[in-house]
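Tokens for chain A. Residues wanted.
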């Protein structure tokens, strides 16, 4: 780093001031993080989604979904046989990406609707920044073409957001099929490709292919079962009411819960709703509950009570609230899908919400490395130096500032690649929060890597969001790397 004569002393003392104190403390991946203050003292009723909330799946499930959907494209949609050469690529995509259906581009967008340059992929290859800027006349994506609150594309919306963990194989398949067509110079319509892949992935779920495969080899596909069991047991021992609202069918949930909890799993839950059709469940008042027998038969009688031990299908939240009386902030619902599981509950119904973000565990592990901490400290210092020194307009000073700016830009790639070399972190686009992060902070009171994090807290615990200074407020502490404390955490 070159520093102009006469500025060396002031520059280095400034640098020392700007380098944040690096704490040797790391963030505990079992922490529950809060966006909004919430006390477990107030929570009497706990609700759960099933897939990726109570049941966690191994990496084999994504390979299974990818392979089945790829074969459906070939067999049912007459896609080229050559597609079979593609295998699932673990760690290609991350959750929360946007896909431009018209242009066949997968990309990461930040909280301010800007595309993160360097994270735009056509097929399996990165699109040069200049090309992206030319296509979008800059890097901003207007609201009109973004998908709605629930990540769905409707008329005129060409950007679909993938928020589901199940969508990782879908994004990878889309990228592989685009790659195949481009490599073979086949003229194709990207809109048809998107719809066909979407339909093939949906068929894997709807036609029960995935359910049957998981049920046939449950040990291969479900992991962390005992921790979910321990959480449910703890809640039950403390007299908490519990319910399950899942979009999955009863057989599949029953088989999984038998594996996770045991054959008496239904004793733990006061209400069990399957095939709920979320997010429609939270909005559509018309769909009544229907009883399902243990053998899967549907009964025709009108539902006047939601009884423990019985299984109900579909229904809607308005009817659920009327029949149970479980309203407002005494209810905490956990789910992994920020839109389908949590958005309506926060926006319309006032339940408290907990987001399950399994990716946190991997990202926190990276953030705890010395390499990452030093990178962040230097990035912060460099930013501060540029901010302070830019006022010196003489050519020598400007040359140094320009060098710092180039160094800061070069660090963008490092801070991205350390998480995922294509798309970086789920939570950040360089300095800004991602579109995903913005939604997470809006719709989830608390968030955590897995439901098992609850085992670290007692039922008197209050989660306080950290009071990070607003831009116009003066910070109380300079340190970037403050350990996320777990006050009153159970240590035994
Ligand atoms: Mg789920």
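Reply:
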């Amino acid at each position: 780093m070159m520093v102009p004569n006469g500025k060396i002393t002031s520059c280095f003392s400034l640098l020392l001031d700007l380098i944040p104190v690096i704490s040797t403390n790391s963030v505990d991946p079992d922490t529950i993080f809060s966006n909004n203050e919430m006390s477990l003292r107030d929570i009497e009723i706990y609700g759960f989604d099933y897939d990726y909330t109570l049941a966690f799946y191994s990496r084999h499930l994504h390979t299974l979904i990818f392979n089945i959907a790829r074969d459906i494209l070939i067999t049912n949609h007459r896609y080229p046989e050559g597609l079979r050469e593609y295998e699932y690529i673990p760690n290609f995509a991350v959750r929360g990406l946007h896909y431009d259906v018209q242009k066949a581009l997968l990309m990461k967008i930040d909280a301010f609707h800007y595309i993160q340059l360097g994270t735009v992929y056509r097929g399996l290859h990165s699109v040069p920044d200049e090309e992206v800027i030319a296509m979008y006349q800059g890097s901003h994506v207007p609201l009109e073409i973004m998908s709605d609150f629930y990540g769905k594309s409707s008329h005129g919306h060409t950007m679909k957001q993938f928020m589901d963990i199940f969508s990782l194989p879908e994004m990878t398949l889309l990228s592989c099929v685009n790659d195949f067509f481009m490599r073979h110079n086949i003229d194709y319509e990207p809109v048809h490709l998107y719809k066909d892949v979407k339909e093939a992935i949906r068929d894997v779920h709807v036609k029960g292919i995935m359910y049957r495969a998981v049920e046939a080899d449950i040990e291969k596909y479900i992991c962390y079962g005992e921790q979910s069991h321990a959480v449910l047991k703890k809640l039950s021992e403390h007299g908490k009411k519990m319910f399950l609202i899942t979009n999955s069918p009863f057989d599949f949930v029953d088989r999984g819960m038998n594996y996770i909890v045991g054959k008496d799993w239904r004793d733990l839950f006061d209400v069990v709703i399957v095939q709920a059709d979320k997010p429609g469940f939270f909005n559509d008042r018309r769909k009544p509950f229907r009883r399902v027998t243990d053998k899967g038969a549907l009964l025709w009688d009108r539902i006047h009570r939601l009884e423990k031990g019985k299984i109900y299908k579909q229904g809607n939240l308005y009817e659920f609230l009327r029949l149970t009386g479980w309203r407002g902030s005494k209810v905490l619902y956990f789910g992994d899908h920020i839109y389908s599981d949590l958005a309506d509950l926060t926006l319309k119904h006032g339940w408290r919400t907990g987001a399950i973000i399994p990716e946190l565990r991997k990202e926190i592990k990276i953030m705890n490395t010395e390499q990452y901490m030093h990178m962040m400290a230097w990035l912060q210092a460099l930013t501060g130096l540029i901010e302070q020194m830019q006022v010196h307009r003489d050519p020598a000073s400007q040359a140094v500032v320009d060098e710092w700016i180039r160094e800061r830009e070069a660090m963008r790639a490092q801070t991205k690649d350390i998480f995922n070399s294509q798309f970086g972190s789920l939570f950040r686009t360089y300095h800004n929060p991602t579109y995903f992060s913005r939604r997470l902070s809006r719709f989830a009171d608390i968030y955590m890597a897995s439901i098992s994090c609850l085992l670290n807290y007692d039922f008197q615990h209050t989660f306080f969001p950290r009071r990070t200074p607003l831009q116009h407020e003066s910070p109380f502490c300079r340190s970037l790397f403050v350990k996320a404390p777990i006050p009153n955490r159970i240590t035994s």
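Confidence is low (pLDDT under 50) at residues 478-488. Residues 8-28+360-425 form one domain.
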